[in-house]
């Protein structure tokens, strides 16, 4: 089997409401680039990337000269061809590599008639548990619904998601409002969820001293972990005396950083992202290192549609040391581009696909619909807040958002 062609299509899939985070916002939609790798036997493997609000079509199509004629089984050679560690100093293609790897694994699984999880060593579980992922949100401008900027709105959504999907772990994406205000919201969340485990993730927006004060103020709560409260391995190391497990998805995303964390521990839990690490296989390798040195692992979410969610499920299925629920933005979406409808949560978990390869196929009508929506709306800047046009993100954020500020007039950039 050889690769014959590669195609890329950018889609914009609506969210229930715009999601706020420390670096800006998802402006009411996820912009994702869908990748199709066609083999000479007629099979088509699927990949996906995005998350920054912009199309990656041109970058993916530019890899065609690297891919045509390549055997999708030769994944290490593919990695070195696309994302050579020294060449990538000039052109970092890690996330492009991930999307291509997804598609190649999908091709191989289809060709052999087995799920990707079987190619990775065989599944240890048939369902992957997930945490709720709670964001502060602007109201959807079309409906006026979906706003979450108060503790009451936050706890109402947490209860609704718990009732609807069965979540028993809840993660608050913070770093948006003043830490004192977010502390009030987090404590309200703890009270509203009745002893469920909690995660707080301000995306490294706090200074070390702010992160220490926040951590000290939540030690009495049922915390699962404290994620990226401040920036850098050096910053996280200064918080190790808090008595909270520290997690990261920002400063341990490659093997050099993982080695540094092993030699001088900063984070207790490494959140493995199939895109950030350059593919599912890299995450499996990293999980093995973490298991060796007794670091916890979970599966990170970077704003996925159903294709990348399938990669997260196959990853979660094969990790013996997956001891925490995964993250997913998925329940904030109103639709998907995969056939047979969206994945469903049952008792806080999603079933690992049983079909060959990734186990998902595209719905061509949905792809066409959301490709047209992308052409209409275009890109958006992930690192800007539509409610604060003159603001820009910074680590150790000096300018917090105001939860009482007016709703932004436009979600156009």
From TrEMBL:
Entry EC no(s): 4.2.1.40
Broadest EC class assigned to this enzyme: lyase
InterPro entries per record: DgoD-like (IPR034593), Enolase-like_C_sf (IPR036849), Enolase-like_N (IPR029017), Enolase_C-like (IPR029065), Mandelate_racemase_C (IPR013342), Mandelate_racemase_N_dom (IPR013341)
A Pfam family annotated for this UniProt entry: MR_MLE_C
Transmembrane segments: none
Catalytic activity from the UniProt record: D-glucarate = 5-dehydro-4-deoxy-D-glucarate + H2O
GO MF annotation, one: glucarate dehydratase activity
Biased composition regions of type Basic and acidic residues, renumbered to the chain: 379-388
Positions of region (Disordered): 379-413
Domain Mandelate racemase/muconate lactonizing enzyme C-terminal, chain residue ranges per copy: 151-243
UniProt pathway: Carbohydrate acid metabolism; D-glucarate degradation; 2,5-dioxopentanoate from D-glucarate: step 1/2
Superkingdom assignment: Bacteria
Protein name: glucarate dehydratase
Organism: Haloactinopolyspora alba
